[in-house]
Design brief:
The protein has about 120 residues and is mostly helical. It has a domain at about 30-110. It is built from two helices and no strands. The longest helix is centred in the C-terminal third of the chain and has 55 residues, at about 65-119. It is rod-shaped and about 90 Å long. The chain starts with 7 loop residues before the first helix and ends with a helix.
Amino acid sequence: MSIKIEGFEKFVAIGKENADAFAKSGAATVKAFEEIAKAQQAVVAKNVEKADAAVKALFAVKSPAELADLQGKLARESIETAIADGRKLAELATSALTAAVEPINARFAALQALTKVAA
């Protein structure tokens, strides 16, 4: 004996689509964290190289005037680099968040359209 519940198949399909959307969102989130971690690792490696070069340049200074000029230059470069790196990481995080939320937003839109049709 089988019992047919009207609309049950549609209900199951909606549940499957929702689960798929959350799975896609999770996969996008994992990928985003990997990309952000790689970008942060690259920033750290670049900053270590710059710090090494800065220390070598500071030890090569021959006069107080040269030291003052070099310190000003290094400070400017450090601030500019920090701003650029911060902007790059923020853009990466924003695009990652957008990619992670998009499948769920699409499901909300689909369910909202479904409820408008049913009403």
